[in-house]
Design brief:
With 440 residues, the chain is α/β, with parallel strands linked by helices. The protein is built from twelve helices and 21 strands. A hairpin with a 6-residue loop joins strand 18 and strand 19 (422-424). The two termini are 21 Å apart.
């Protein structure tokens, strides 16, 4: 078993987390030991208390603004600190048994990227013109040549991933990250846009550095097997279930998430992703926070229970474990506030529940690796079983305000990992309104 088979991941967007300027003035010469990224070290005891065993950092290398407009893949963003500061963070995480995943932005770079600045200056005479998709015409910025931007965003310059020199540059960056920070995996930004042969080469390169190196790709729609296969990525983001998770509760229609899980994992019929693990989430740095998205915040507890018990690798976005709000309609900055643990109720019911669920997921083979079988489904109630290595886990979800009694077909004596109570499923099991159980 690899480390990511029972991973529970905590996501940090460093530029927001550290409260730095949202546009890089390129004037800092940070002193080692003073970088704001070092704040993560103080946060480690709480991350451990909550039961997370991996931290995923969104972009933290030198960029013009938000991190996805890279300037230099080898230098930590000077707004955050120094390379040495980040090494201290990674060392501290590893010393506490926490894996480190970095966000790899390999589809595009910023206009201030060193090689593209040379193209802007020297145009067709630049030795780096073939690093990008350059052709006759003009750009929105009046460069005197046309280039491809990511999905029409011309501050994000698309790299030419057919160029072996470009591919070597990116693979060398990964090698340096493993050498300097001992990272354990990558989240590949907009993986759905990446050239497939590049992904195959990257997998070979990364697995050669570490056999248990994890490759997660950001994908939105379609068949995730296109990217998630033995030649390319280990996992992809499960945006299908992201939508189904909050919609099922807001619309009081559990059939939606049950349909997605059935077509993805149902052991009793054809399904798409048997034996594979998609990355599952309720929110992230690109979408509205789940506490804002939900019509009834009393659904937070059963919704997190569902996230941690359904097939997949669960990811929680920093702050959401305390009910942090944030509306995408107010811009990305509203989703990416500075992290201040003093502003949160760390002893609240939601983080206490999440701490139980993270450990149940990591420690219970039936939950992190088991098959999936639906047991009960109505508009407002949902139950399913997962089995591995002779162990069975049952998730019971009640989205209704009223109590509901389940008659479970899987009989036996179980322990509810949330309450700690013994539960005998030979008799009907009653859940209170907005209740959930995880029986093992």
């Amino acid at each position: 078993m690899f480390w990511y088979d029972n991973a529970v991941i905590y996501q940090i967007y460093p530029i927001g987390y550290c409260g730095v300027e949202r546009r890089n003035p390129f004037k800092y010469v940070p002193a080692e030991g003073e970088g704001r990224i070092l704040r993560v070290i103080d946060h480690i005891p709480e991350i451990k208390r909550l039961g997370f065993n991996a931290v995923m950092f969104n972009p933290l290398f030198e960029s013009t603004a938000h991190g996805y407009d890279t300037v230099d893949y080898t230098t930590v963003d000077t707004r955050l600190g120094t390379n040495a500061d980040f090494k201290k963070v990674c060392d501290a995480l590893h010393e506490n048994g926490i894996k480190v995943i970095l966000d790899a932005v390999f589809n595009h770079v910023g206009r201030d990227f060193t090689q593209f600045k040379d193209v802007r200056e020297n145009k067709y005479n630049s030795q780096y013109k073939d690093w990008f998709h350059i052709r006759d015409g003009n750009s929105n910025f009046g460069d005197g040549f046309y280039y491809e931007g990511w999905e029409g965003h011309y501050d994000l310059v698309k790299l030419n991933l057919y160029n072996p020199v470009v591919k070597d540059h990116l693979k060398n960056a990964v090698s340096a990250w493993v050498r300097d920070y001992d990272i354990d995996g990558l989240r590949l930004d907009v993986a759905y846009s990446l050239e497939h042969n590049f992904l195959r080469e990257l997998r070979t390169h990364c697995k050669g550095l570490k056999t248990d190196f994890w490759l997660l790709g950001e994908t939105l729609h379609g068949d995730y097997n296109v990217w998630m296969n033995p030649q390319m990525l280990d996992s992809t983001t499960n945006y299908e279930c992201y939508k189904g998770l909050h919609s099922s509760f807001n619309e009081l229609n559990m059939f939606e998430i049950a349909h997605s899980l059935g077509r993805q994992f149902n052991k009793e019929s054809w399904c798409l992703y048997t034996g594979k693990k998609l990355a599952c989430f309720l929110d992230n740095h690109d979408v509205s926070r789940i506490a804002t998205k939900l019509t009834d915040k009393r659904h937070l507890a059963p919704l997190y229970t569902l996230l941690f018990t359904m097939p997949g690798v669960p990811i929680v976005y920093c702050g959401s474990e305390y009910g942090q709000e944030g509306d995408k309609h107010n811009g990305d900055d509203s989703l990416r506030p500075e992290f201040d643990i003093a502003a949160y109720d760390t002893d609240g019911a939601l983080p206490a529940l999440i701490a139980k669920l993270t450990r149940a997921h990591a420690d219970t083979p039936a939950i992190h690796s088991g098959d999936y079988r639906q047991l009960h489904l109505t508009n407002r109630q949902f139950a399913f079983a997962r089995t591995a290595d002779g162990q069975t886990a049952i998730a019971l979800i009640n989205a209704d305000a009223k109590p509901f009694t389940f008659d479970i077909s899987v009989k036996g004596t179980f322990t509810d990992v949330i309450s700690g109570d013994k539960v005998d499923t030979n008799s009907p099991v009653t859940l209170p309104g907005y209740g959930s159980m995880v029986l093992v």
